[in-house]
Amino acid sequence: MLAYTTEGLRHHNRALVLKRLREAGSASHGDLSISSGLASGTVSVILNELVEEGVIIKQQATPSSGRGRPKVHFELFGDLAFAGLVRIASDEVEFSLIDFSGTLKDRFSLSRPREGSSASAFIQLVRQGLNRLAERADVKLTDLAAVTLSIKGIISLGTKTLIWSADFGDQTIDFGQAFNDLGDRLRLIHETSLVSERLYQGSRTLLCLSLGSTIGLGLTRPIDAESSEHSAPAFSHSCHDPHGPLCRCGSQGCIDAYASFYGILRTALDGPKNKVSSQIIPREEILRIAEDARRGNRNFQIAFLQAGEAIGLGLSRLISVYGSLDIVITGFGTEYFDLMEPVVSKHLSANLLTKLGKEVSLTIQPNEPAMIYDALNSNTLTYIEEKLVAPRRLGEQAA
């Protein structure tokens, strides 16, 4: 249980009312008092404050009958603040603009080069997109309340630095330094961890496993009845076989070396195990191999089975650590997961804790981009509510 000062408790209660109002879309004073669990008088004070500050608007609802006073409903004021959402994928960077109500106002994508892109060129691409997003909204980039970047890779905890990624290897990218004009407005989050946090139901540990050009894992686990913690373990670079093929990270036999696009392609085409291509593997190439595997190509079938073996054993080890798990498979790899699923399920079922009654569920969520956008939207608005609006700091971030 968190301990609050008087001022901290006031901020907490304001953020809670905003959260419940966002969940409802439109709600009355009574609705918010019930859903928040706060006293009616406390909710009244908070609603009056938020109306005066222009954070929310109140509207008189049309009564269902001709009798009685019409109910007053409250809604978030969308134009209060705007935020930029940046989804970084292997082949493109998607830029979205949302308002404080969560409404999408603008969206476009910029293509990334398939090979040979430097970290500095990549930063310029992101800067170009953000400037364009602000220009199209007729605002300054620094007028945005928050800019949230989601990316796969290894992020230094507590910083805005990418310390390893499939695209740039161990060439670090300090986004905080590159976008120092944004100050605290800029946030960098591992996208699969972000999705796991969004999908979390508040009971068992949840794993979100993204299959594609690289392998991403997000983990959300309960701490107590009221809180949870979120992380992005380097699952793809845990060792499956110390004598296995070379991984992009420089080690031998990582899960990524078997189950990512390049790993599956290398096995399918019997490529050299001690070499990793720097080229981005087109999604269409993997889908072609998957279709040929379904038609009976034995070498291609083996490639997907070996990928499933690496994924299944890796997940089984996590069952041994965390016990009951809800596992969500997402990413482009869901389009060929049917070729991997039998061996993955075999290893999940064979785990001792599973046999002893620990519950393990496995579901498929194919539309990863939509889930990432939804998670980015929710996380960013929660940040604005809790860190800026509730403590009355909107517009005061350090630039």
What does this structure look like?
By secondary structure, the chain is of the alpha/beta class. It is 39% helix and 21% strand. The strands form four sheets. The protein has a five-stranded mixed beta sheet, with helices on both faces. Strands 14-13-12-15-16 form a five-stranded mixed beta sheet, with helices on one face. Strands 1-3-2 form a three-stranded antiparallel beta sheet. A hairpin with a 5-residue loop joins strand 13 and strand 14. The chain is globular and about 75 Å long.
Concise summary:
The chain has helices at 6-24, 29-36, 40-52, 119-136, 175-178, 191-199, 255-259, 261-268, 283-294, 298-322, 341-350, 352-355, 368-389, and strands spanning 27-28, 56-60, 72-76, 82-88, 92-99, 104-111, 146-151, 154-155, 161-164, 173-174, 186-190, 205-210, 216-222, 228-231, 325-330, 360-365. By secondary structure, the chain is an alpha/beta fold.
Please report the total strand number as a whole number: 16
Overall structural class, as computed from helix and strand content, comes to: alpha/beta
Estimate what percentage of residues fall within beta strands: 15-25%
Main sheet record: 5 strands, mixed
Strand order of the largest sheet: 6-5-4-7-11
Please provide the ordered H/E string of secondary-structure elements.
HEHHEEEEEHEEEEHEHEEEHHHHEHHEH
Low-confidence stretches: none
